[in-house]
Amino acid sequence: MEKKSTTIIEIAKRLNVSVSTVSRALHDHHSIGLRTKTRVQQLAAELNYEPNQAAISFKQGKTFTIGVILPNLSESFFSTAICGIEDFAKEKKYNILIGQSHDDEDTEKQIVQTMKNHRVDGVIISVAKNSVNYEHFNMLKKNNIPIVFFDRIPKMEGIHYVACKIEDGMSQAVNFLIKQKHRNIGLINGPDTLVASKDRLGAYMNTLYKKRRIKINPDFITSTDLTKEGTQAAMSRLMSLKEKISAIITFNDYVALDAIQYAKKNNIKVNEDICFVSFANLPICHYLDTPPIASVEQFPYTQGEKAAEILLDLLSDSPSNTKQEPYHVIIEPTLAVNN
Fold this sequence. Notes:
alpha/beta
């Protein structure tokens, strides 16, 4: 038969003290004398006492667990963001419950429901590329579960979020290519459902035409659903144009890698016939023979860390968590050039 766990009631009976005295002694409360603290803590150690976390959570109204929902952990960007979230949460004695949407709205909804059922205290989310209905996020808010979005931000009012200033990153990318004497600059954007795709497109057009007075060819603009097949189809469209493109800006490094692979298979010389600039600045790109010539660093660790900081502030008892205005933290990007 499995041995029952030791409780503070048993410790109190053995020492002939109150349960509240044992509880305070175990928490090193100043109101309990040193002799009593020592007796309680020594007996607790001898009996292998472990706190009943469920009871503590019930008493405090918290589980000290936050949920994190990401599109795909296999992507270096999101695994790095998780490190930022975990490091900050660990410092504040919080645990992490992770779910992957795999860029599917229904899966994202299911994970949100599961996390609600597991009574997470709050949720950090980077939205799936196909999510267009945000009722599952509203459901969390109705249940007083705070949400902080990062990187992929839904078009919702009054939300807390951390994001990189994509417009500045795109502007840096376009200006860099123009300085490299490129004029026919293509764009392989992401899905239209993502706000980040709209931000990239707007900055691309604004920098080319309004700031640099370069005529925009709409044929130079295409998109991918972020799959390998979608990117290859986008490359096929761009490479079949009569007016040749000399450089392409891609939605992220993964899209750039698929585009580079397409170019090589079709005997297009990368960084000679065509070059690429992308977003994310993945470490793996620095080990490639033909990496993108530059990539916009979006600081995923910092985004994750800041998202965790905001969420835990919202969960704290500090006066700042009653502020009326939502938290909006913008991270400034930098263009990392691969020499």
